[in-house]
Amino acid sequence: MSKKIKFIDLFCGLGGFRIALEKQNCKCVFSSDIDEAVSKVYENNFGDYPSGDITKIDAKDIPEFDILCGGFPCQSFSIAGKRLGFEDTRGTMFFEVARILREKKPKAFILENVKGLTNHDKGKTLNTILDILNELGYDFVYKVLNSSDFGIPQSRERWYCVGVRKDLKINLNENDIFPPEQMLLYSYDDIIDDKKKYDSYKISDICKKNIQTYIDKVKDRKSKYTLAYEIRPSRCQFRANGISPCLTAKMGTGGNNVPVVVELNRKLTERECLKLMGYPDTYKIGTGAQAYKQIGNSVIVPILEYISKQLVELLKKGEAIQ
Questions:
Q1: Whole-prediction pTM value?
Q2: Span 13-43, pLDDT tens digits
Q3: 288 and 143, same structural domain?
Q4: What's the CATH number where 120 sits?
Q5: DSSP conformation letters of 37-80
Q6: 3-state secondary structure of 230
Q7: Is a pLDDT exceeding 70 seen at residue 271?
Q8: % of the chain exceeding 70 in pLDDT
Q9: Residue 146 β-bridge partners
């Protein structure tokens, strides 16, 4: 019988990667995040308080593991494209991923990032990342997926990259790793709670006025509820098709950055937003600005569950895990 696959959870946030890998009976042996508020939420759900700033952690102090997971923050690569190889990424969080891959040589990795990574600096940033992953000895596949094409009612495009060590000689094919498109499993109508009043989530009169100024823009209503977002005196966007706009970390900055359920005159709750990320109902989340920020920074759990399942099966089939 194969041993339990071990993984590390870098830039762990709310722990979406961990939920996905633990569903495949994998064991988390290390987690890291610099944000103390989100680390407390992580601890509340998993019982582990993440290690802090990964830039200050020696790879030798990280336990041995099989899979590296990380939705690394993507700062500008100021010197990307100058063909300096591994050194090109110094000062960025991808450098930390590359550093740990180089020093620990795990069997595989799963990375996630914003779609904008693919065209940043005219593609030079992505090419630098891919060149380094190749230099480090990994075969890989990558793809941009929109969660609304894979059952989850949120328009959220993200770059996913999966790699395995070349010496394992596992044939990687994107059709074997990434999920096939499917119909929505539910719409945002199904997760909006209209039984409670949620008075503390009510929008201001000014917000109502801004929405009403532009509500006539809504055409072809397919949902019971309309979501308004980017609500300003000068503009307002709407969704009435059961698929929410992309939830962002800006939700935690206040103002009108949390989508509004027009018919209920209130913002989406933290719990509703969490469900739009595919988190289980049992997940414990806080309230207020920090919670909204944490959710907007998180990952789509069901997509990672599928990817994790496929990767684990490939590793076991290739007898990479003895």
A1: 0.92
A2: 999 999 999 999 999 999 999 999 999 999 9
A3: no
A4: 3.40.50.150
A5: HHHHHHHHHHS-PPB--GGGS-GGGSPP-SEEEE-------TTT
A6: strand
A7: yes
A8: 93
A9: 157
